[in-house]
């Protein structure tokens, strides 16, 4: 399955969150959006992710809180789960 992930927690004034999430619909069967800093929806997605799945990320600076977090997430998704 193809998933899209968008973290809308840190938004600029006037930013159109639904429009950005719609960009992911071109690639994803299901869109997962977080509005909280601790990313509960991403954690649920990681729990159900399988090796045949793909995650499309709208913005890496919202996907991870830093380089260590990004490294940990990519290691889990790519190496441990085997997803794309």
Summarize this, please?
With 84 residues, the protein is α/β, with parallel strands linked by helices.
Strand content: 15-25%
Helix content: 40-55%
Instruction: Report the count of strand segments.
Output: 3
How confident overall, as mean pLDDT? Answer: 87
Query: Given the helix and strand composition, which structural class is it?
Result: alpha/beta
Q: From N to C, what is the helix and strand string?
A: EHEHEHH
- Radius of gyration using CA atoms only: 12 Å
Shape from CA axes?
globular
Largest sheet: 3 strands, parallel
Tally of individual helices:
4
Q: Flag low-confidence runs.
A: none
- The order of strands across the largest sheet is 2-1-3
Ends distance: 10 Å
Describe the structure.
With 84 residues, this protein is an alpha/beta fold. Helix content is 43%, strand content 18%. The protein has four helices and three strands. Strands 2-1-3 form a three-stranded parallel beta sheet, with helices on both faces. The chain starts with a strand and ends with a helix.
Write the topology of this structure.
Elements (H helix, E strand, L loop, with lengths): L1 E6 L9 H8 L5 E5 L5 H9 L5 E4 L2 H4 L3 H15 L3
Parallel strand pairs: 1-2, 1-3
Features:
84 residues; 3-stranded parallel beta sheet; 4 helices
């Amino acid at each position: 399955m193809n998933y899209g992930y968008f973290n809308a927690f840190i938004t600029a004034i006037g930013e159109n969150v639904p429009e950005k999430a719609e960009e992911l619909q071109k690639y994803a069967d299901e869109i997962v959006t977080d509005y909280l800093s601790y990313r509960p929806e991403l954690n649920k997605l990681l729990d159900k992710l399988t090796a045949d799945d793909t995650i499309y990320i709208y913005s890496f600076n919202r996907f991870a809180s830093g380089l260590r977090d990004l490294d940990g997430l990519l290691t889990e998704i790519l190496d441990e789960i085997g997803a794309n």
